[in-house]
Amino acid sequence: MSRSRKVRRPARAAPAERTVRPAPGSGMAARVALPVGVILLLGLLAYSSSLQGEFVFDDIEQLVLNPTIRDLGAFLGPAGYRAQPHRYMAYLSFALNHRLGGYEPIGWHVVNLAIHLANALLVWQLVRLAFRSPRLRGSALASSADAIAFASGALFVAHPLATQAVSYVVQRITSLATLFYLLAVVLYLAWRLRPPGRGRIFLYAGVLACSLLAFRTKEIAFTLPVAIALVEWAFLEGGARRWLPVLPVAALALVIPLTLVDLGRPTGDLLASADTGTRVQTVTSRADYLRTEAVVVVRYLGLLVVPVGQVLDHDVAIRTSWLAPDVAASTLLLLALAALATWLAWRSRPGGTRPPLDPAVRLVALGIAWFFVALSVESSVIPIADVMNEHRMYLPSAGLLPAAATAAALLFLRVAPLHVARDTALAGAIAGAVLGVVTWNRNLVWQTEISLWNDVAEKSPRHWRALKNLSNNYFKQGRIPEAISALRRHVEIFPDEPVSHMQLGVGLYVARQPIEAEMELRKAVDLGPNEPDMLFNLAFFLIEMGRRPEARPYLERLIPLEKDPERRKWAEGELAR
Question: Do residue 186 and residue 271 come from a single domain?
Answer without folding.
Answer: yes
